[in-house]
Amino acid sequence: MHTHRVLTFVGCALAAVLATAWTAAPPPPPDRTAPTVVHLHDGALRGATHGGYRTFEGIPYAAPPVGPLRWQPPRHVASWTGTRDAARPASACPQPAGEVPGGSIEEDCLHLNVTTPDSAAPARPRPVIVWLHGGGFTTGAGSSYDAHRMATRGDVVVVTVNYRLGALGFLALSGLPGSGTFGLADQQAALRWVRAEIGAFGGDAHNVTLAGESAGGYSVCAQLTSPDAASLFDRAIIESGSCTGRPDRPFAPSSTPLSVARAAGADLAAKVGCGAAHDVMACLRRGDVAPLLAAQGTDQQPAYGTELLPRDPAAAIAGGRFHRVPVLLGNTQDEGNGWAAGIVQAGFPVTAATWPDVAATFFPSPGQAQAIVREYPVRHTGGGGPVFGAVLGDANFACPTARTAGLLAARVPVWRYEFADEHAPPLTSGTPPFPLGAPHASELPYLFDLGGRPRDLTAAQHRLANTMIDYWARFARTANPNSPSSPPWPHPAVLTLAPDHITPTHTAEQRHHCTFWTALG
Q: Which of 41, 245, 288, 308 fits a disulfide with 181 by CB distance 3.0 to 4.6 angstroms?
């Protein structure tokens, strides 16, 4: 089994899963008989009214990062005259072809979307949830997350954000200010916009929760440890984006040293014909986007050792160097099953005979594979896919999340969950080689209508979705997800979230073999 081939496939498989989950769909027709106009510092916006909520889409929060502003920190958007139409989403940020089917992709992409309950003048300003999408820092768009259920049931204002992706968001080169962190800088610019403007939408600028999943969840980790993000948000929600991710566990997002990011940037410059240019940056800024996307790595990582991200978030969290805000975080029960299924379907079966070789491919350090095979035995022919999935999920997500929760809880209130609906609606088409249970990203349809399309949920799953939104919104409102109308969420217990089975557990680390993974290093 060739490691490079498998890891390349893994990245492509992940992108396919995320792209399917976040495919943009035409938004519901706006009710233009009741237009909504709000006045911001930069100009007026006209949004759209729907049944019980209002949307304002494609709002620019920074100047277009094009031409000389490509690979520059985000600049303030220019004011406009008249009333800008905000009834339709704007373009997604550049990403590999087909990753946002049906949606436009342009470099002028630093936009956000606001969803708010219909009442224009609430009795008091509503809590604000700012959502950062996932996608391996290479794919995704804020407009793919229809947040109307969270906004209306939770009585909150939800802001979904585009940020620069791939090489355009995370290129690093010697002498380039902002190297490796342009996408994170965009997120901070969006948060500053929220502090300044969200009051016009009925939101409370002094009660902002930063939330995200996968790469978006890891972005929240990065912002927790970035000095530049101090005072930009008041709570944090981290879904399947452990702050203690490691580059040698490539399924979960992590950061990379600036020196490594610069080497990758120099390689990219050479691939697009700019490596030997007299002015490398001028050459890169003149070039088309398509060759840059073709030359970039499958997944991207923010760079640390930078002004925006001085330390690896894992080390910063371990050392207590993070902003003191309450945190709600968790993972799905079967995080790794989607990747394992994709790898099996790509022609790498996991059987008792092949399992040692498979383990050695993904855990090549001396002695690790043998220990994993002993801890996670494949006991019958053809049944190793779920075992492989458990290894990937435990090593990359469940146990790092447990470690992150423990480190954070030493200094701030922490609420931890595990999403465990074993019959969650699939995010991709086709029949997997084994039941996936609750894989990576499977909680998202319970919080959002992905791509504007509601998923088919059973009555019990709808009840779970409502309860999850209640928890998330209550946490955003008070920093405590508990309320008299929901099952109690005690801590330090982990709250299991499953249809008609919401209950605390103290055995999550045991079920995910976390003592083993800690000993393995």
A: 308
Rg (the chain; Cα; Å): 22
Give the integer Cα–Cα distance in Å for 488 and 502. Answer: 9
Q: Give the integer Cα–Cα distance in Å for 468 and 374.
A: 37
What are residue 48's phi and psi, to 5 degrees?
Answer: -140, 145
Q: In this model, does residue 334 exceed pLDDT 80?
A: yes
**By mean pLDDT, which of 117-131, 211-225, 260-274 is the weakest?**
117-131
Phi (first) and psi of residue 124, to 5 degrees:
-140, 155
**Cα dihedral sign, 163-215-266-9:** negative
Cα gap 122→152, rounded to integer Å? 12
Dihedral of the alpha carbons of 367, 397, 389, 295, in degrees to the nearest 10: -90
Residue range 359-377, pLDDT digits in tens: 999 999 889 999 999 999 9
CA distances in angstroms from 361 to 239, 352, 490, listed in the order given: 27, 15, 40
| Pick from 154, 257, 223: nearest CA to 475 | 154
Task: Please provide residue 247's backbone torsions phi and psi, each rounded to the nearest 5 degrees.
Answer: -60, -25
How would DSSP label each residue in 66-79? -GGGTTS---PPPP
Q: Given a cut of 60, is residue 1 above it in pLDDT?
A: no
Phi-psi domain of 473 (left: phi exceeds 0; alpha: psi -120 through 50; beta: other): alpha
Contacts 24+ apart (CB under 8 A), 431-437: 432/337, 432/338, 432/341, 432/345, 433/341, 433/344, 433/345, 433/385, 434/337, 434/341, 434/344, 434/385, 434/386, 435/386, 436/334, 436/337, 436/338, 436/341, 436/389, 437/333, 437/334, 437/337
CA distances from 250 to 26, 150, 301, 437, 503 (A): 34, 31, 11, 21, 31
Residue 310: enclosing H or E segment and its boundaries? none
Higher pLDDT: 521 or 497? It is: 497
Task: Indicate the burial class of 58 (C-beta count within 10 angstroms; 0-12, 13-18, 19 or more).
Answer: buried
Closest CA to 395 of 377, 369, 414: 369
Contact 378, 352 (CB under 8 A): yes
Structure confidence at residue 105 (pLDDT): 82
- List the catalytic residues: 214, 335, 440
Per residue in 133-146, pLDDT tens? 999 999 999 999 99
How far apart, in whole angstroms, are the C-alpha atoms of residue 437 and residue 390? Answer: 11
